[in-house]
Design a protein that fits this description.
Number of helices: 8
Largest sheet: 5 strands, antiparallel
Structural class: alpha+beta
Oligomer: single chain
Shape: extended
Distance between the termini: 39 Å
Strand order of the largest sheet: 2-3-4-10-9
Radius of gyration: 31 Å
């Protein structure tokens, strides 16, 4: 009876996929046991130290309408400014798990409400409203055409003036500059906020546990913790402050590196496969050049996948002293499993190269025999 030989590659693939499914299953089915633990976190009585993070504004609706709206608009503007700072959105560029970003200092949503700042623009906007009202009850086609032309001229002048004012404002803006580290999640009990130019997160301090017959509840309160980095929750990005000089240098270097990488990757993963297909069509499949091409594609894809998976953790080693423990990267095993298909593709390319090597050797033996 012939002994069956176990395939190592098939075994590795089966183990990886089974492990992934097991992690999902046990993650969904885990529980806290027969006595579940709930939690209650009290909000601070004085929210000033948290930059009004937990507060909600109340306006007395018995006030006169004009006063009510004025107060309501002011509160909305304050809240919008705070939310804009807390979100930490900025402009910049990234490549993989690193990037460089700039954020306007002391941002204000009213900053771009140019109508209130520029009398000329306000006059044009008022004219636009007046001309727009002429449309009411106008049915004559010639009159409608003239009104549309007038509206178009005013709109064009408004856009020109708005662009001029925006460029002037942007020249005067103060910027803050950051190194961005991607892939960080803030603990669900914590929130990031900016106050007086400093960066904070809320942390929960657990005070006691109330035990009952069938369950229990942890009771705690919020405290604030000053940190050295900024955080963009929407982008899951840690922002490490850097100087403008470093920002300008590294942003330029990153831009150059991105274009070089794009050229190199197109050459490897598009140019080389096309060249291999052309050689095969000419009857030159098993050549040393094609063998080298497959190996090169396999090695490059493996290195790229390795950097994609592990570069966030490598960078974290350099900045672990300033990144609080409340910020966590995705577990290494999860990141590896999510990108395992790229490792497998690299492995397939490598073995295809080995197959071409075998074909080349057989071809050489056949040529020597002849």
């Amino acid at each position: 009876m012939r002994k069956y030989r176990i395939s190592i590659i098939a075994t590795i693939i089966a183990v990886l996929i089974t492990s992934y499914l097991a992690l999902i299953y046990f993650g969904l089915s885990s529980s806290t046991g027969p006595f579940p633990m709930g939690s209650y976190i009290s909000y601070p009585e004085n929210d000033t130290s948290f930059n009004n993070l937990f507060s909600s504004a109340y306006v007395n609706d018995s006030l006169p309408h004009y006063e009510y709206r004025r107060i309501e608009d002011s509160l909305k503007q304050i809240r919008s400014t705070e939310e804009l700072d807390n979100k930490s959105g900025g402009s910049g560029q990234r490549f993989g798990s690193v990037g460089f970003y700039s954020i306007t200092k002391n941002r204000n949503p009213l900053y771009y409400n140019l109508n209130k700042e520029d009398p000329e623009l306000k006059r044009m906007s008022d004219s636009l409203d007046i001309v727009g009202k002429k449309f009411i009850n106008v049915t004559d086609k010639d009159s409608i055409s003239k009104i549309k032309e007038e509206l178009g001229n005013i709109t064009w002048r408004i856009n020109v003036r708005s662009n001029e004012l925006t460029r002037e404002r942007q020249k005067k803006e103060q910027k803050l500059y950051y190194l961005g580290l991607e892939g960080y999640q803030l603990h669900y009990d914590s929130e990031f906020f900016v106050q007086n130019g400093n960066y904070y997160i809320t942390v929960v301090k657990w005070d006691t546990v109330i035990k009952r017959k069938y369950d229990s509840t942890k009771v705690g309160h919020y405290e604030r913790k000053e940190i050295a980095v900024r955080y963009s929750k929407d982008d899951e990005r840690i922002l490490v402050p850097i100087s403008k000089k470093k920002y300008d240098f590294f942003k330029t270097a990153l831009a150059a590196f991105i274009f070089i990488s794009i050229f190199f990757l197109i050459y490897i993963f598009i140019g080389l496969p096309i060249q291999i297909l052309i050689d095969i069509s000419k009857g030159k499949a098993f050549t040393k050049e094609n063998i080298r091409r497959f190996k090169l594609m396999a090695y490059v894809l493996f290195v790229c996948t390795f950097l994609k998976v592990f570069s966030p953790y490598i960078l974290n080693l350099f900045y672990r002293k300033i990144i609080p423990k409340e910020f966590q990267l995705e577990p290494v095993i999860s990141a590896t499993i999510n990108n395992i298909y790229l490792f497998l593709i690299a492995l397939v390319l490598f073995f295809v190269g080995k197959a071409f090597q075998k074909g080349y050797n057989l071809q050489q033996e056949q040529d020597l025999t002849i």
